[in-house]
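Put briefly, the fold is written as integer tokens. The lines below illustrate.
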Amino acid sequence: TARNPHSVDRYTGGSSSGPAALVSSGLCSVAIGTDGGGSVRIPSALCGIVGFKTTYGRTDMTGVLCDSGTVEVASPLTSSVEDAMLVYFAIAGSRPMDKLTLRPVPNLLSLGSVKIGKYTEWFHDVSDREISSTCEDALKLLEIILPELEEMRTAHVVSIGSEEFTLDTRTSLALFGSFSSTDYVASQCIRRRIMHYHMEAFKKVDFIATPTTGMTAPKIPPSALKSGESDYVVSAYLMRFIIAGNLLGLPAITVPVGHDKQGLPIGLQLIGRPWGEASLLRVASAVEELNRPSTFYDIL
């Protein structure tokens, strides 16, 4: 995997590690990845850039290797929210052969009346309280209480583990072969309930904010340089807050809002209503303008 430009002894996150490292280093301003379990938002947060996942069905999936699942979306990694807007308008829409893409009406929202909520139960479920506090300081947040949040995590694991993957991903996720058709159907029932809970929450707030990840970029153990590693504790912290975007198909964006004591980037995630990309990008742009840390480039 690519090294993190902010600290070369730390992970970039994945699976879009290369694109995130390139954009963060200033070698390019835009890259494209796919996000089925935070694969764009996680590396973007760890590298201090913008990662934007659209509503499921919004972007053209033609040519994407894994284009038949129910959680995967082609998504941009960019150096700014403005760049994310430009790429979004280029890849949004459909082609006749693309059976997954829809053309809904844009959802615009006045920024003067925006209400942003947070998962009361989850928001501070991080490895270091500094992460959630930095995100909380960036915005004035309303508390929302949603049932079955832990079940949402389980349903996402079953869903993403039961759908089509490339060969290398299938190999690393071989443990998902133990899921039965009954498990998959049960996870879809949970998905429907969780979607209902979120739509009820969106009657009270316009967006939901979370830390993008539950920890900043973790160190790469020396042993991992030779044989790789699978650290499920670290993975759980990194994937802690990204689930709703994938399981429910909601649009979500990560924006850098600061650094921890070690100088590592902290990302804030905003989750919006289905098809609410236009309003989500406008709010993200405002957050970026108010909180964005100094840009880091280390091309050499």
